[in-house]
Design a protein that fits this description.
Blueprint: H1 7-21, E1 26-41, E2 54-58, E3 65-75, E4 78-87, E5 105-112, E6 116-123, H2 126-130, H3 137-140, E7 159-166, E8 173-180, E9 193-202, E10 205-215, E11 249-261, E12 264-276, E13 287-298, E14 304-317, E15 321-333, E16 338-354, E17 360-362, E18 378-389
């Protein structure tokens, strides 16, 4: 699979754009986002020897992406739509999401003004669309996420081979539902994913809640334990939850509320995430992560915003661990397309969790979805960067 934009890809994109100009009722858009910066990360390695700090180049707020999206008016309030979006590393140009060409999103669908929208392909689940939209993730992204992104707060899990329905808004209420096909012969439920969420907005108040379930599949590795083969991406990407990668299933319940008062926007969120075990798991008791979050933003000029946030996450069941995380950030828009940012975060962990071998180990700090395991119970992140959208 190609990990870069080839000359053929660019030619295809240009051809699509010219085709769009020839049809007044259709549109195709080439778009993207580039986030680049420098970050200081304390305890940025797997051991506690030495200072273990690192200066890193990369993105600290948004995932880098480029894509094509378009729609075609079919008449009678019906339209066809598509979106192809790939992620990449700004420092190396390598493709993200495991090297997929369009790993962030690849969908085609139909949209009706009266009946709603159907999207088919690889896409985000309803909790990401509706609940995460009311959290600080919508403003300052990666580092403000739940420690280790254990509840998919930052949308690091996408669902393959899925169908999603989005209802029209009725009285301020909108509903989404998704089903991801496991595709395993003789076992309809193995590897399946399903999710449903609802959102309500009225004036300055917005509310959302939903539920997500992903089956881990029935594939067993050479060690006799499960290898994650769900239609959903694996969430077990950091030292916080890597020890539960042989889970039978992942279930997530999330809720969030947001209120805007003048230049101030505040929000609260809660999630309950359970990694269930069975005979093919390395752990016996289900792992249950509960997380509470709060944030306040101040838009003190049209171009300048600052925000602060707090997460408290605790693990129960298989082990007992606690994670306290505080964040602060500042963003300034130089234009409609370009902004600069600065952020700081600190996390402290205590208690125990599991490693990839299933052994109980001291809990390690991992700030948000930044993805750097500390090998320590504390971690500090300081970052500055620039973003440009096109």
């Amino acid at each position: 699979m190609h990990q870069h934009v080839t000359k053929h890809s660019c030619a295809a994109a240009i051809a699509l754009i010219f085709c769009a100009n020839a049809h007044a009722q259709s549109s195709v858009t080439l778009y993207g986002l580039i986030d680049a910066g420098v970050a200081y990360v304390s305890h940025a390695g797997a051991t506690t020897s030495g200072s273990n700090a690192a200066w890193r180049f990369g993105n600290a707020v948004s995932g880098n992406r480029w894509g094509l999206k378009g729609n075609e008016d079919l008449g009678g309030g019906l339209a066809a739509l598509f979106q192809l979006e790939g992620g990449y590393s700004i420092g190396t140009g390598a493709a993200a999401q495991g090297g997929r060409e369009f790993g962030r999103t690849s969908i085609v669908g139909l949209s009706s003004q009266r009946w709603g929208t159907i999207k088919l392909g690889r896409q985000y689940d309803p909790l990401v669309d509706m609940v995460s939209a009311l959290t600080e993730d919508a403003y300052f992204g990666l580092s403000f996420g739940t420690p280790g992104d254990v509840d998919n707060y930052d949308g690091s899990m996408r669902v393959n081979n899925s169908a999603k329905y989005i209802s029209p808004k009725m009285g301020g209420v909108q509903i989404e539902a998704l089903y991801g096909f496991g595709g395993q012969a003789g076992s309809t439920g193995a590897g399946q994913t399903w999710s449903v969420a609802a959102a309500y907005a009225s004036g300055p108040l917005s509310l959302a809640a939903g539920y997500y379930y992903a089956d881990g599949g029935s594939t067993v590795g050479t060690n006799g334990k499960r290898t994650w083969t769900s239609s959903a991406d694996s969430p077990f990407n950091t030292a916080i939850n890597a020890g539960f990668a042989t889970a039978h299933s992942v279930s997530i319940a999330r809720a969030a509320a947001q209120y805007q008062y003048g230049a101030l926007t505040g929000g609260l969120g809660y999630s309950h995430t359970e990694y269930a075990s069975d005979a093919d798991s390395l752990f016996t008791d289900s792992a249950r992560f509960n997380s509470g979050s709060a944030f306040v933003n101040w838009q003190f000029t049209p171009a300048a915003r600052m925000g602060v946030g707090y997460h408290y996450t605790w693990l129960a069941g298989a082990d007992s661990a606690h994670y306290h995380q505080v964040n602060a950030a500042f963003d300034y828009s130089l234009s409609k397309r370009t902004d600069v940012y600065a952020l700081a975060a600190f996390q402290r962990a205590s208690g125990t969790t599991r490693n990839a071998s299933g052994a109980s180990i001291p809990a390690q700090a991992v700030i948000g979805d930044y993805g750097v395991s500390s090998g320590s119970n504390t971690q500090t992140l300081l970052a500055v960067g620039v973003r440009q959208r096109f």
